[in-house]
């Protein structure tokens, strides 16, 4: 006799698209908001009147290639 026992085969369960879509849309909107604040929150298009947002995302702007100086 062998001491080896075989585990039952585990199959991945597909996730329906209707369950993924709301989270994908939410994630896309968050990414667009983040890109706005990193890339365009400065000058004429600013939503906030102070420079704290610009200073907070300053290094991310350079990392992603957005000019700011």
Automatic annotation (TrEMBL):
Keywords: Membrane, Transmembrane, Transmembrane helix. The chain crosses the membrane at residues 20-39. The keyword Transmembrane applies. Pfam families: CbtB. This is Cobalt transporter. The lineage of its organism: Bacteria, Pseudomonadati, Pseudomonadota, Alphaproteobacteria, Hyphomicrobiales.
